[in-house]
């Protein structure tokens, strides 16, 4: 299985990078079963950016967790770069995640005792890269998100928006095939948010990275290639609101 997980991703623009088929998640905790996702279908191609919108409690976080292999569906499957997450064992799944998926979740999960630079370099260190090489790449990403000057600061010394930018650098440092983002620009001012969007555009174009972005921000949603609304456990394509300049 390990060998399968290490195979290269289907990175040609236009190839399906993410496929969800009949994706269903029923929570059995509590007095009543709760069906949150109900036969959801989604295909995202290499180089494509898809925004997911939906009301509070509609299942956006549940969906992101399934896409990232952090939770297992009750029924159906998630394929990333042609690989079914369900078919991977725990060790292979961890390896696959590190290799193919970048996460930017609302709680950034930065390690408190590490600097911004060390945090951003961590996925490469985990992958076995030499510290010097990993930190050189991490520094490039920190520059891109406007955090180079704070590279030696620990998360406790950074603002919420600054921590978010370090988390974005960390998610992108491995050149992932797929980036999963939960409100990635929520804490950022307009100028910083615009520079993050420009970085995402460039990555989608140059490295065929696919993005799935959960957001309540109509401006951010309008900036993506497609907007999907999650409602009653399924996704439907939305007309895009006019982008906010
Ligand atoms: N572990 C769990 N056990 C039982 N129900 C759960 C569990 N996790 C989530 N839910 C329920 O599933 C539904 C979807 O939750 P989820 O967090 O995915 O929604 P969301 O769209 O991300 O919401 P928000 O926009 O408020 O963050 C909610 O009704 C929630 O109460």
From TrEMBL:
UniProt xrefs under Gene3D superfamilies: P-loop containing nucleotide triphosphate hydrolases (3.40.50.300)
Alphabetical list of CDD domains matching this protein: ABC_MJ0796_LolCDE_FtsE (cd03255)
Keywords, in A-Z order: ATP-binding, Nucleotide-binding, Transport
InterPro entries hit by this protein: AAA+_ATPase (IPR003593), ABC_transporter-like_ATP-bd (IPR003439), ABC_transporter-like_CS (IPR017871), ABC_transpr_LolD-like (IPR015854), MacB-like_ATP-bd (IPR017911), P-loop_NTPase (IPR027417)
Domain ABC transporter: 18-244
Keyword Aminoacyl-tRNA synthetase applies: no
Gene Ontology molecular function, alphabetical: ATP binding
Pfam families, alphabetized: ABC_tran
Alphabetized SMART domains for the sequence: AAA
Similarity section: Belongs to the ABC transporter superfamily.
Protein name, UniProt field: ATP-binding cassette domain-containing protein
């Amino acid at each position: 299985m390990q060998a399968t997980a290490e195979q290269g991703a289907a990175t040609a623009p236009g190839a399906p990078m993410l496929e969800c088929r009949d994706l269903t998640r029923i929570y059995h905790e509590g007095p009543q079963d709760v069906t949150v996702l109900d036969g959801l279908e989604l295909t995202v191609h290499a180089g494509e950016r898809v925004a997911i919108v939906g009301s509070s409690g509609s299942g956006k976080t549940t969906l992101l967790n399934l896409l990232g292999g952090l939770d297992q569906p009750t029924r159906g499957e998630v394929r990333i770069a042609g690989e079914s997450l369900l078919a991977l064992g725990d060790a292979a799944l961890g390896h696959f995640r590190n290799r193919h998926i970048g996460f930017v979740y609302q709680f950034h999960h930065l390690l408190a005792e590490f600097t911004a630079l060390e945090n951003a370099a961590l996925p490469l260190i985990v992958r076995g890269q030499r510290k010097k090489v990993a930190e050189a790449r991490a520094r490039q990403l920190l520059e891109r998100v406007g955090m180079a000057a704070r590279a030696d600061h620990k998360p406790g010394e950074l603002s919420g928006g600054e921590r978010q930018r370090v988390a974005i650098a960390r998610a992108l440092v491995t050149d992932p095939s797929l980036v999963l983002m939960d409100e990635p620009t929520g804490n950022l001012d307009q100028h910083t948010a615009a520079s993050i969007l420009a970085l995402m555009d460039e990555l989608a174009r140059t490295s065929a990275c696919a993005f799935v972005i959960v957001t309540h921000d109509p401006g951010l949603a309008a900036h993506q290639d497609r907007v999907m609304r999650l409602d009653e456990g399924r996704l439907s394509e939305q007309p895009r609101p006019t982008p906010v300049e």
